[in-house]
Design a protein that fits this description.
The chain has 601 residues and is mostly beta strands. It has four domains: 2-106, Immunoglobulin-like, CATH 2.60.40; 114-291, Lipocalin, CATH 2.40.128; 308-457; 470-592. The chain is built from seven helices and 41 strands. The strands form eight sheets. Strands 9-14-15-16-17-18-19-20 form an eight-stranded antiparallel barrel. Strands 21-23-24-25-26-29-30-31 form an eight-stranded antiparallel beta barrel.
């Protein structure tokens, strides 16, 4: 009967089940999945789904979580182990009850190799790891925050460093220890991985987490770079202790080298009140830390694009009036210019700082004239200060006089540094190659960071051309692996009908397809983007334009049509199956600048 209930739960072509159709009791070994010891080596265990291929399957194993119909485990040590199989439904994953299997013998082959040497000293050895305090020439501190989809394969080493790894396109925040609440007590703890007799693990908490001494065993999967602990938790900072989904299971080993370990778990939306993300904990080996001698390494510096001086100074109209952004007027930067928070809109700003309010800073401006190097700072109270400036080849402005500070957000103010200077940290360009923003940083006298102010040029500072057009792109994503693809840019010069396309192949999971017109809402808040035709692999599909979501994009100036939304498919489409392109998707759309009222839902 269990098999019959599963088959009846959905259509043959649908890869997810409706939420009420499935319970853990349906997912039992021998009916929903199998656990098989390899005939050539019983320490190799094969997990196989027995459900039709249309179901999206996940596994929770001693070596971490994974997706796919099959999972192979290589387990070195004897003992009792548990696995769970999950099936994706409209209401989320439904998991089987834990199912046990036994490993009877030790397999030395599975704890040999470079990664086992790095982690635990190899067979018969052990290795102790301590938090990275930010002063070992590796990471900026003990904690990094990444997108929840980040995995080992996403990690890249920043040029010119020996250990500053980051998640490519998925790095959210890498704060200094003090900026996230990491204390000296957090940095005194340690954890040890041992392969002497079994895969032993011990941790010493020095920051108030209880119990402060924990011991257990660990399971490490070097093929998938995942780990789980039994009987103990991964070492972590006290501030995050009550915000995580789990401190022992489903751990991601993002980076593992001879002297560096970056290991991650997940923030819980329910416990933290914030979106799910990766908590990454950065460690160095104790041997490395005890023997580390800082070298004479120069501070990293921002890398500005070629021709940046001409970009910000202009050649025809030399005077540029800069104002603070009405969306994200300030942030903090690392020494290399990397934004530490990535706030994009007023809603992103935290309570401890406050919300940007243009009534406070909107009338502040900085006008720079490269013809005579003159500067005028205008303030909200109607006063102004005139001075001169120099701009060196590193992007450092030095003003002849100090200028008054002015409030921006809460306690944070715009002001020059002790040398009457500001440094260009980043230069932003619009899709047409023109400068659309500039981040100027004030160096912190104590910490290795800048308070950065986000300036944008006012209309008319570009020589009088205020509307060069907009950029439309068609975008696609496979939710199975979250690989995003963006099609060629289409320039929208005026109201009218346009076509955007993308060459893409659907592989697995619910698809995502959306059209962005950037930055249409900046100039036309009452604009509309009307869908005229949607083609998948050259064939038009039927739809109701009014049923397809109209919303803002990742930036509040982007007009987005969410054509295929995996979190709520428009009622005019029969199923996600119509959005399974094998070669191409194409959307024809009409742009209207003013409908008399906002069309955003």
């Amino acid at each position: 009967m269990a098999v019959l209930s599963l088959v009846a739960a959905c259509s043959p072509d649908d890869h997810t089940l409706s939420a009420p159709a499935l319970s853990p009791e349906d997912l039992v070994e021998g009916i929903a999945f199998s656990i098989t010891h390899d005939s050539s080596n019983p320490n190799i265990v094969h997990l196989t789904s027995l459900l039709p291929d249309s179901y999206q399957i996940a596994w929770m194993t001693p070596q971490g979580r994974s997706l796919g119909k099959e999972r192979t485990l290589k387990i070195a040590f004897d003992g009792e182990y548990e696995v769970q199989m999950g099936v994706s439904t409209r209401g989320g994953y439904v998991w089987s009850n834990p199912t046990s299997f036994s490993i009877n013998d030790f397999c030395a082959d599975f704890v040999s190799g470079e990664l086992w040497e790095y982690l635990a000293g190899g067979a018969g050895g052990s290795k102790t790891w301590v938090p990275d305090n930010g002063n070992y020439g590796m990471k900026q501190g003990f904690y990094s925050c990444f997108d929840p989809s980040a995995v080992h394969a996403d990690m890249l080493l920043k040029d010119g460093t020996i250990g500053n790894w980051y998640a490519d396109g998925k790095t959210w925040w890498e704060p200094a220890n003090g900026d996230v609440g990491i204390t000296e007590d957090d940095l005194k703890g340690e954890m040890t991985f041992s392969l002497a007799g079994n895969a032993g693990y011990s941790v010493t908490f020095t920051n108030g987490i209880s119990p402060d001494q924990q011991t257990g065993i660990f399971n490490f999967d070097p093929d998938n770079m995942t780990m789980s602990l039994d009987g103990a938790e991964i070492f972590h900072a006290l501030w995050a202790d009550d915000k995580s989904e789990d401190w022992s299971k489903d751990l991601q080993v993002l980076v593992l080298t001879e002297n560096q370990l970056m290991i991650a778990n997940y923030r819980s939306e329910a416990l933290s009140g914030e979106d799910r993300c990766i908590y990454c904990w950065n460690f160095v080996s104790k041997e490395y830390a005890d023997s580390y001698v800082p070298g004479d390494v120069p501070d990293p510096e921002p890398v500005l694009p070629d021709g940046w001086k001409d970009d910000i100074s202009q050649t025809v109209i030399t005077s540029v009036k800069w104002v603070l952004s009405d969306q994200n007027p300030l942030d903090w930067c690392q020494l290399d210019g990397t934004l530490m928070n990535g706030w994009n809109s007023p809603a992103d700003y935290p309570d401890w700082l406050g919300t940007p309010d243009t009534s406070v800073y909107g009338d502040f401006s900085m006008t720079l004239d490269s013809k005579d190097n003159s500067a005028v700072f205008a303030y909200p109270d109607g006063t102004s200060v005139s001075t001169t400036y120099e701009l060196d080849d590193k992007g450092i402005y030095t003003f002849a006089d100090n200028v008054p500070a002015t409030s921006v957000i809460g306690w944070a103010s715009f002001e020059l540094d002790a040398n009457n200077g500001l440094r260009i940290m980043r230069i932003e360009k619009d899709p047409f190659g023109d400068v659309s923003g500039m981040w100027l940083g004030k160096r912190d006298p104590e910490k290795p960071e800048y308070l950065a102010y986000h300036f944008v040029p006012t209309a008319g500072s570009n020589g009088g051309e205020t509307n060069k057009g907009y950029v439309a792109t068609l975008n696609f994503n496979n939710t199975s692996d979250w690989t995003m693809v963006t099609g060629p840019q289409v320039i929208v010069k005026d109201e009218g009908t346009y076509t955007a396309s993308i060459d893409v192949t659907w592989t697995a999971g619910d698809p995502m397809l959306w059209l962005d017109v950037n930055p249409l809402l900046k100039d036309h808040p009452n604009a509309d983007v009307i869908l005229k035709d949607i083609k998948i692999d050259g064939s038009s599909i039927s739809f109701d334009d009014s049923a397809v979501s109209r919303c803002i994009g990742d930036d509040p100036t982007i007009y987005r049509r969410y054509i295929c939304n995996p979190w709520g498919l428009a009622s005019c489409f029969p199923s996600f199956d119509v959005f399974h392109p094998q070669s191409n998707a194409e959307v024809t759309f009409e742009v209207v600048y003013d409908t008399g009222a906002s069309t955003i839902e």
